[in-house]
């Protein structure tokens, strides 16, 4: 269902870009064309943020789900492409002061976001490790081709898998919350014989996936909370004289920075990250057409965080909540079971196992495309930064 929504959103996003560019050419050259491109960028940001807010409101429990996060990342890519097109059109202006300073600050924020992309990808891998234990429990309680009831041995295997999962999640949270967890891998190819993630004292001896670290890996002291604060540092809406001095470019640069900060803040809120934290000052003047949508989403996520009182690295992802709820219910049920099982107990156990299987299916379907989108954001940021450094206008100076 989400794939259809995403496809429709992609088509609409492309139509926004093509429509605005056609509109710019129709209005003629010079200031009118530039104004149309800047208005097009603001319209694009407004559309995608209103769409995200509406999607969260339509499904009250869908906020910070894998599907919603994928929608958010797709929205970011659309806005990033529109902003890139605007900068390419204004190539003669972006190398002049004070626009060059504003863009340098934007790219500095964007480069800081690369570390968050790496940390988020490692968080996705962490969820995959959790899923492996869920699959063991599901396989134990729903053996293929089994025509009989659930045996005591099956229940023991499932209980052990869920106990191991609970310990693993607790260790991962402790390691992440103290900002000493393993280094996050960069977006390179894995190596079967490469070095493994460095383990924290609480996870020594536990073998985890191996990789060949290339670049942009974060250190053990790295903090997602501090990185978000660095991205949002000194981010303020431009004043009237700044808008005039930059021929209006201060507004789209601020908008792009705000969208970047909000996107990174959301993924850190949702996905397990080293030393997570959501204490970022985020306010947008009401004069911006997208202000109400982003403010509403920000407030909802903050309230969700307060409600759950999370200070660990677990994340607010909807599917993580489902894992915690279902595993707790299933564990309590298995602990209370006495053999031979009553018919009602076996039905309840099968029902809980079916719920767990649905969570596994959702993770299997959603994590890989989510990781691809995070990778795409990483590469787009690197590409746009490279383009800015190699632009003819900059080279001429």
Structure description:
The structure is a single chain. By secondary structure, the protein is an all-alpha fold. The chain has one domain. Helix content is 69%, strand content 0%. It is built from 13 helices and no strands. α2 packs parallel to α9 and α5 runs antiparallel to α12. The chain is elongated. The chain starts with a helix and ends with a helix. The relative contact order is 0.15. The N terminus is likely disordered. Keywords: Membrane, Transmembrane, Transmembrane helix.
Summary, kept brief:
The chain is mainly α.
Q: What descriptors fit this protein?
A:
single chain, 397 residues, mainly alpha, 69% helix, disordered N terminus
Shape: elongated
The average pLDDT value, as a whole number, equals: 81
Taking the sheet with the most strands, its summary is:
none
Order of helices and strands: HHHHHHHHHHHHH
Number of domains: 1
Straight-line N-to-C gap: 51 Å
Query: What is the count of helical runs?
Result: 13
Q: Which structural class should the secondary elements be placed in?
A: mainly alpha
Sheet-strand content, in percent, reads: under 5%
Which parts are unreliable, with pLDDT below 50 for 5 consecutive residues or more?
1-30, 179-216
Helix-residue proportion: 55-70%
Report the C-alpha radius of gyration, rounded.
24 Å
Number of strands: 0
Pfam family, one: ROH1-like
Subcellular location: Membrane
Keywords: Membrane, Transmembrane, Transmembrane helix
InterPro entries: ROH1-like
Topology summary:
Layout: H1 2-26, H2 31-58, H3 66-89, H4 91-94, H5 99-141, H6 152-177, H7 224-232, H8 240-245, H9 250-270, H10 291-308, H11 318-336, H12 343-389, H13 392-396
Helix pairs in contact: 1-2, 1-3, 2-3, 2-9, 2-10, 3-9, 3-12, 5-6, 5-7, 5-9, 5-12, 6-11, 7-9, 11-12
